[in-house]
């Protein structure tokens, strides 16, 4: 009887330990490509458990540019300078989706975009992108493909 209680207590302890661990978050680290009408974006993510670094290479009707930003994945705004202007990156988890928003100033005005990213397999992710500024506010779906992993 004592042996049964000992085995039972080990099983309960092990179960509690497994249940108390935080779920593993998807890892978006790597280089990803989006091709849309008239534009190409290649974005590299460097991600760990608490931080993200984003390097965006964009070619569209506004020209070619590279934006680099980083911050904690904590839902708080992280102010920085990008291309000589103010920029704020906010990143947080919503379930297994990574939500990040970039609000940046430029000579053309204020740009504010939010993406909600969800991995779909190893080689692609889907994102709902919302342009908050300049208006009008609009949302659309994006599918990104992996160019290389880390």
Topology (SSEs and partners):
Layout: H1 2-20, E1 30-36, E2 39-47, E3 51-60, E4 63-72, E5 78-82, E6 85-94, E7 97-106, E8 109-119, E9 124-133, E10 138-149
Antiparallel strand pairs: 1-2, 1-10, 2-3, 3-4, 5-6, 6-7, 7-8, 8-9, 9-10
Describe this structure as you would to a colleague:
- With 150 residues, this protein is mostly beta strands.
- The chain has one domain: Calycin beta-barrel core domain (Lipocalin), CATH 2.40.128.
- It has 1 helix and 10 strands, in the order H-E-E-E-E-E-E-E-E-E-E.
- It has one helix at residues 2-20; strands at 30-36, 39-47, 51-60, 63-72, 78-82, 85-94, 97-106, 109-119, 124-133, 138-149.
- The protein has a 10-stranded antiparallel beta sheet with strand order 4-3-2-1-10-9-8-7-6-5, with no helix packed on it.
- Strand 7 and strand 8 (109-119) form a beta hairpin.
- The relative contact order is 0.15.
- Residues 5-12 and 14-21 have low confidence and may be disordered.
């Amino acid at each position: 009887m004592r042996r049964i209680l000992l085995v039972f207590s080990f099983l309960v302890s092990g179960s509690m330990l497994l249940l108390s661990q935080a779920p593993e978050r998807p890892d978006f680290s790597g280089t990803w490509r989006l091709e849309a009408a008239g534009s190409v974006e290649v974005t590299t993510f460097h991600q760990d458990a608490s931080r993200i670094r984003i390097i965006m290479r964009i070619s569209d009707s506004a020209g070619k540019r590279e934006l680099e930003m980083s911050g904690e994945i904590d839902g708080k705004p992280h102010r920085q300078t990008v291309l000589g202007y103010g920029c704020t990156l906010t990143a947080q988890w919503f379930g297994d989706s990574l939500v990040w928003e970039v609000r940046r100033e430029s000579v053309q005005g204020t740009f504010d975009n939010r993406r909600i990213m969800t991995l779909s397999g190893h080689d692609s992710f889907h994102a709902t992108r919302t342009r908050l500024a300049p208006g009008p506010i609009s949302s659309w779906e994006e599918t990104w493909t992996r160019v290389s992993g880390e």
